[in-house]
Please model this.
Amino acid sequence: MVSQSIRNQYLADPDVQLMLKVSAGDNAAFEDLVLRYQDRLVGFFFHLVHDRPASEDLAQEAFLRIFRSRDRYEPTARFSTWLFRIAHNLASNHRRGKIKRRELSLASQSGSHEQLPAETSFAEKSGLMPSRQLDSLELRELVRSAIDELSDRQKTAVVLHKFEDMSYEEIGEVMGLGTVAVKSLLSRARIHLKEALEKFS
Amino acid sequence: MNSANPESESDDPDLHETDPRLTELVAYLDGELSAEESERVEKELAAQPALRRNADGLDRTWQMLNALEDAGASGEFTKRTLASIRTVSTPEAQLTQPSLQNSRIQTVLAIAVPALLCTAVGFIGTAIGLNLARNAPAATPQDRQLLQNFDLLQNYQNMRQIPDAQFLQQLANTESSTAGTQP
Model:
């Protein structure tokens, strides 16, 4: 049971108000929430998985999970925090499933094929010269490649901070981490990005 | 509200501070420091060109992330998601429908079950009756003789008045002559 003081803390959030309406049986209020958050949610998944159909499937699943739990809804956080916490869990499960599939695929290939070479960065693969002026597509691929080299936690923290404009505290709430841990994740990520991208900046 | 997981935080080296100065510098660039802490970092930046270059590099590479493609939801996504939500909410409506069907079934059963029970009881009763009749003991010679003399036994009191067979013969002759004189 959520205490009244915690409940009151989040009642000022208009999206919490919409979700309370959904909880009371107002499906039109949920459509408003979908329209408000769909771009942000699909964007969040797209930055993590780089696959539009998969991003939309994951975003749809996040909305469905929220809708299915409407009867048990208690405002214990800002609506966006709750939504992105669900999205973060879905993204983690998606990545775990992907890794498992890749391992199974490699296991089935081992013995008949030579070992695959270690993944190289986009800059190495494309032979980009740091001194050359990059076009927007090349720059995008370069940045994406640098982000993909981050750990999953670092990547999520970067996406939430850079594109969702979340504070360290909010990121901690979404990812289930303390503020110190988020600080550490982001500083490591920023240092890595600087090392990977500075020569092209 | 913070659902931090201390166990996983202690396990993952990614979550431990490496260089406190760099962590503080990043937090400063992210606007996460208090006014007092920010002032201290600014003083250090003013005094140390290497730290300033580092901060500049961190900031420029962070801005490079703006080059990433911004993927919003497609029009199809909105339609698909709203349709799936309607589908999820429909089973609730369907939950009330079976209860209506159930009440109709219950009404039919309320009529049909007693009728079926009556039919069954009648059927069983008939079967038992037939079975009892079939298993009844067979008639003895004594019974057969009694049945044969049933008329005589019924008029036993009258028969006792007749003295002998000759009287009966005379009676029969009288009845036949009387019948011949009748118009």
Observations:
- Residues 113-119 of chain A have pLDDT under 50 and may be disordered.
- The first helix of chain A runs from residue 4 to 10.
